[in-house]
């Protein structure tokens, strides 16, 4: 059901609690925490500017890191207030708590267009527990609620779900922010009736993480291109040799069932026809978890569907790149989630970068709508300098996967219907 959007609200002079995602990376410099990447702050600016223009009194809430219910100075949002003030070109007040009388008193001084950032909501364990009493206290701060934190919408926490329920019960509107609205439109409505052909590219580590997405997309897609380690679980299901590749042997039935469903529906599932492989070698070191650290050595191409016993598949090979690129270039709708290999290592990033290029090219040359489902695919596109050459990049990793699975996200469900 369509949700109310911030642009439809009348908020002049009203207190609006905006759930933003200011979970930004920070680093200590000269004894001070500083924000090292402002992307998430930048993404909320359209919603904040709109609310300021509409004369709302803005009260911003976010989490930062995992303080597990305790005050952690290193996870304070105070440095974000200063950064946000620079970016909004106006003062941003900071409250060193997110609930309580002191915060409520600070609110009294707010004028239309003023902005107040609350302290990290996760300094209270009640936030993640979605505690009703804590939600009531958050709701005491505002008349209206706006959620622009898509990346947290799959979690039913007090600031993403509970508080919206209380504000709605008290008669206040609960709306999607502009960023949230774009996420819902591109990952939802646009994929509901895609222009055809519709190509889905799925990669990453595990079949088990993506199987629900595959199931759902089998109803919509014309072809599904599989890469990453998950391809080797499919190969195992086909009785092929996977060497030392990362596989989930207990998920071969799931892979088989996806292949047979695709056959029955006339959806093409494409699997890699060649690979880049390497030999995992024990370095004699152990990581923080006490597990042996392996070094990938002897990078080579493998043109057979079977892998040698000592080889691990670490990227798709050149013939697969060519075949996948052709399908991508002729698609009119593209959805991409997950890298084609261990792209963090430049030796094994070629397949992922080639896919990124094909997606960008299809968008530019044939007007395809390209939607990137968050996480590592976004990182790969940005690393290849192609981030601005696709139609939409989701800001949610887990949230976008759950949304693509067709799940109703708690933070979205709690918003008012139009
Ligand atoms: P996911 O979070 O499921 O999208 O997985 C992303 C991770 O999968 C990245 O860190 C990649 O390094 C990893 N990955 C992709 N392909 C492979 C592969 N062939 N073998 C091992 N890890 C892989």
Explain what you see.
Helix content is about 35%, strand content about 20%. The protein is built from 15 helices and 17 strands. The strands form 4 sheets. Strands 5-6-4-1-7-8 form a 6-stranded parallel sheet, with helices on both faces. It has a 6-stranded parallel sheet with strand order 11-10-9-15-16-17, with helices on both faces. The chain has a 3-stranded antiparallel sheet with strand order 13-12-14. Helix 8 links the parallel strand 9 and strand 10. Helix 5 packs across helix 6. The longest helix is centred in the C-terminal third of the chain and has 16 residues. The termini are close together. It binds adenosine monophosphate (AMP).
Topology:
Blueprint: E1 15-19, E2 26-29, E3 32-35, H1 39-53, E4 57-61, H2 78-88, E5 93-94, H3 101-108, E6 115-117, H4 125-128, H5 132-139, E7 144-147, H6 158-169, E8 174-176, H7 178-192, E9 198-202, H8 207-217, E10 223-226, H9 230-237, H10 252-265, E11 268-270, E12 275-286, E13 292-302, E14 312-316, H11 318-329, E15 333-337, H12 350-365, E16 369-372, H13 376-383, E17 392-393, H14 398-404, H15 410-413
Parallel strand pairs: 1-4, 1-7, 4-6, 5-6, 7-8, 9-10, 9-15, 10-11, 15-16, 16-17
Antiparallel strand pairs: 2-3, 12-13, 12-14
Helix pairs in contact: 1-2, 5-6, 8-10, 9-10, 11-12
The chain binds adenosine monophosphate.
Adenosine monophosphate binds next to strand 14.
Helix content: 25-40%
Structural class: alpha/beta
Described by strand count, sense and barrel closure, the largest sheet is: 6 strands, parallel
Round the Cα radius of gyration to an integer and report it: 23 Å
Distance between the termini: 8 Å
Shape: globular
- Please tell me the CATH architecture of the largest domain by its name: 3-Layer(aba) Sandwich
Q: Residue-averaged pLDDT, rounded?
A: 96
Compute the number of helices: 15
Strand arrangement within the widest β-sheet reads 5-6-4-1-7-8
Topology-level CATH name of the largest domain: Rossmann fold
């Amino acid at each position: 059901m369509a949700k109310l959007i911030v642009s439809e609200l009348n908020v002049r002079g009203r207190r609006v609690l905006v759930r933003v995602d200011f979970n930004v990376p920070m680093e200590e410099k000269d004894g001070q925490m500083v924000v090292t990447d402002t992307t998430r702050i930048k993404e909320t600016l359209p919603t904040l500017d709109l609310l300021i223009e509409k004369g709302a009194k803005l009260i911003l809430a976010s989490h930062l890191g995992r303080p597990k219910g305790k005050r952690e100075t290193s996870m304070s949002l105070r440095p974000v207030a200063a950064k946000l003030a620079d970016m909004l070109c106006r003062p941003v007040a900071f409250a060193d708590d997110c609930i309580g009388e002191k915060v409520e008193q600070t609110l009294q001084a707010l004028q239309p267009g003023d902005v107040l950032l609350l302290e990290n909501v996760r300094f209270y364990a009640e936030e993640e527990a979605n505690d009703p009493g804590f939600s009531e206290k958050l709701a005491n701060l505002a008349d209206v609620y706006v959620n622009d934190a898509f990346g947290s919408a799959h979690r039913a926490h007090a600031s993403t779900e509970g508080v919206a329920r209380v504000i709605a019960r008290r008669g206040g509107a609960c709306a999607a922010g502009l960023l949230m609205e774009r996420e819902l439109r591109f990952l939802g409505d646009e994929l509901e009736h895609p222009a055809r052909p519709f190509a889905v590219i799925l990669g990453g580590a595990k079949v088990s993480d993506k199987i629900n997405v595959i199931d759902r997309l089998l109803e919509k897609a014309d072809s599904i291109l599989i890469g990453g380690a998950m391809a080797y679980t499919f190969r195992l299901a086909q009785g092929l040799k996977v060497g030392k590749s990362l596989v989930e042997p207990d998920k071969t039935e799931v892979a088989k069932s996806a292949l047979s469903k695709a056959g029955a529906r006339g959806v093409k599932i494409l699997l890699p026809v060649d690979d880049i492989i390497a030999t995992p070698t024990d370095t004699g070191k152990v990581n923080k978890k006490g597990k042996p650290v392996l070094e990938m050595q002897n990078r080579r191409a493998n043109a057979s569907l079977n892998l040698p016993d000592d080889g691990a598949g670490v990227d798709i090979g050149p013939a697969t790149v060519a075949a996948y690129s052709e399908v991508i270039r002729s698609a009119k709708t593209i959805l991409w989630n997950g890298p084609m290999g261990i792209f963090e290592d430049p030796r094994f990033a070629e397949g992922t970068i080639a896919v990124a290029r094909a997606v960008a090219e299809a968008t530019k040359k044939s007007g395809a709508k390209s939607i990137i489902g968050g996480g590592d695919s976004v990182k790969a596109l940005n690393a290849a300098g192609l981030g601005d050459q696709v139609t939409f990049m989701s800001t949610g990793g887990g949230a976008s996967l759950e949304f693509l699975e067709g799940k109703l996200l708690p933070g979205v469900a709690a918003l008012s219907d139009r």
